[in-house]
Amino acid sequence: MILLTCPWCGQRNSSEFSYAGNVAGRPDPDQATPREWRDYLYLRDNTHGWVTERWYHRAGCRQFFVVERDTVTDQTRDPRAGTVSLNAAEPPTAEPPANQGAP
Amino acid sequence: MAMPGLGRRGGIRPPRYSAAGLVSHGLTHRDWTPMWRRHELEPGYDVVIIGGGVHGLATAYYLAANHGISNVAVLDKGYIGGGGSGRNTAILRSNYLTPEGVRFYERSMDLYRGLAADLNFNVMFARRGHLTLAHNDGSLRTMRWRAEVNKLQGVDSEVIGPDEIKRLVPYMDVSAAARYPVLGALYHPPGGIIRHDAVVWGYARGADARGVHIHQDTEVTGIDVAHGKVTGVRTSRGPVSAPVVLNCTAGWSTLICDMAGVQVPVQTFPLQAAVTEPVRPFLDAVVVSGSLHVYVSQTDRGELVFGASVDPYPSYSMRGSLDFIEGLAGHVLELMPSLARLRLLRQWAGLCDMTPDFSPIMGPTPVDGFLVDIGWGTYGFKAGPVSGEAMAATIAAGKPPPLIAPFGLDRFAEGRLLGEKGAASVGH
């Protein structure tokens, strides 16, 4: 990947961005079994194809955004503001939350 | 996991290579005997190995050579040695951080040292010495820790200072004025480099001679599991039944595990490498800097081979990037400013199957008969022989030998991680 499009700044060198990945749905620490907790800690999707994920424009506007990427070709599409939630019960927020800090 | 009826199948005697043979072929221009044969895909095998890289072929070789199990198929969707085995930087070492890791990789070094004689094939192993540089107090502490763990396991490894480094690598900038001053290094004299393609070909030739079938251009499209037990695989050339299926597919290993319904904590990241034009020999040792994310060695042909750490996001793409080349060039010049006029010839990427603890996953899975030899991340090539030997023993005995027992898939659920990040993340 050479260029990535920030929804606020437009096309920039991909080296300006940090990969933030998906937000894994965290199980309730009081209810989760050790097995569930360790799955949450260690298991990740390793999708071969299109994924929806978060990136952080570290050397630019310092905002998080959502973009779709094909992990086979590293083509990207549809960069937009917002967050990704793996938890279906929780709708994606419209605006990036403030003060997320550096990844 | 019982292994009934595993039998030996007839092979051919491999042609011996010798100086006289070389002269004879040179004078007569006779073609060399192909090193391995093509076969029709049989309806069933005792063992099916998915992935024809150094791990898959070494396992097949040791199954036949050590255990007499030769009704084995090695399936590869492309050509053998076309994945990580042909894309790594061919560096060998055993100076890891955990005692389990050090013992394991030291056995691999043992096998590599005797490999040319074992396979009757010149794998061009060169003992060069291996330096892991420390640019800050934290790294220096880790180097001392590693040196002590290594010595306790009988591995030659010590921390040396800048003067000694300068003696070993005269072109290195060890002055205090450097942007990242070199404070010391972990010196591992037995480390070195090898011809990675030759290792793949040597194992393929040895396995073929003992009756193993090597099937290239044969993509696995599905794995059949019945009642929690593997029964065979489906391929682009038809179905194959097998009571034992071994997954040795590195960067693609999660795709194969998905076919069997096995979840593994692996993510695929590309790792890029590059090579310069060939120059006269000037760099004997392998030089690694974890802080600068770079490692450098000079091949027998004279090219400098550079490697880096994995790309900062997961991907199956094997395209090189400009970022990598810019960063790499800068870091190499920090270490050896006199290389500024060298030209890069080419760059490439290979896929690394990273685990959370930077240690591999070897052994059985919840699906009976479906074994994995995956999670090799950035350190798979140097472990090829020992993991082949150990996985062959696992298949023959039905359970993993003590050497690889700590590396099982169950360690994640049980919280027994084997943290090798300090020694494996960049240090090659």
In short:
The complex is a heterodimer of chains A (103) and B (428). With 103 residues, chain A is mainly beta.
What does this structure look like?
The complex is a heterodimer of chains A (103) and B (428). In chain A, 9% of the residues lie in helices and 30% in strands. Chain A has 103 residues and is mostly beta strands. Chain A has a single domain (3-80), classed as Folate-binding fold, CATH 3.30.2270.10. Chain A has a four-stranded antiparallel β-sheet with strand order 3-4-5-6, with no helix packed on it. Chain B is of the alpha+beta class and 428 residues long. Chain B folds into two domains: 42-88 and 196-265 and 357-424, FAD/NAD(P)-binding domain; 125-192 and 267-354, D-Amino Acid Oxidase, subunit A, domain 2 (D-Amino Acid Oxidase, Chain A, domain 2), CATH 3.30.9. Chain B is 30% helix and 23% strand. Chain B has 13 helices and 20 strands. In chain B, the strands form four sheets. An eight-stranded mixed β-sheet of chain B has the order 6-7-5-15-16-17-14-18, sandwiched between helices. Chain B has a six-stranded mixed β-sheet with strand order 9-2-1-13-20-19, sandwiched between helices. In chain B, helix 2 (54-67) packs parallel to helix 8, helix 2 crosses helix 11 and helix 4 (99-113) packs across helix 11. Chain B is globular, with a radius of gyration of 22 Å. In chain B, 53% of the residues are buried. The A-B interface holds A 1-2, 13-15, 18-19, 21, 34-35, 38-39, 41-44, 46, 48, 71-74 and B 252, 254-255, 263, 265-268, 312-317, 319, 321-323, 356, 412-413, 415.
What's the architecture of chain A, going by CATH? 2-Layer Sandwich
H/E element sequence of chain A: EEEHEEE
Summarize the main sheet of chain B.
Answer: 8 strands, mixed
What is the H level of CATH, i.e. the homologous superfamily of the largest domain in chain B?
FAD/NAD(P)-binding domain
Calculate the mean pLDDT score of chain A and round it. 82
User: How helix-rich are the residues of chain B, as a percent range?
Assistant: 25-40%
Count of distinct strands of chain B: 20
- How many structural domains does the protein architecture of chain A include? 1
Q: Please state the average pLDDT score of chain B.
A: 92
Measured by DSSP, the beta-strand proportion of chain A falls in: 25-35%
Globally, the shape of chain A reads elongated
What does the largest sheet of chain A look like?
4 strands, antiparallel
Q: Any guess at the CATH architecture of the largest domain in chain B?
A: 3-Layer(bba) Sandwich
Backbone structural class of chain B: alpha+beta
Q: Segments of chain A where pLDDT lies below 50 for 5+ residues?
A: 87-103
Please mark out the parts of chain B with pLDDT under 50 across 5 or more consecutive residues, or reply none: 1-8
Q: What is the spatial order of strands in the main beta sheet of chain A? A: 3-4-5-6
Shape of chain B: globular
Structural class of chain A: mainly beta
CATH topology-level fold name of chain A: Folate-binding fold
Specify the helix fraction band of chain A: under 10%
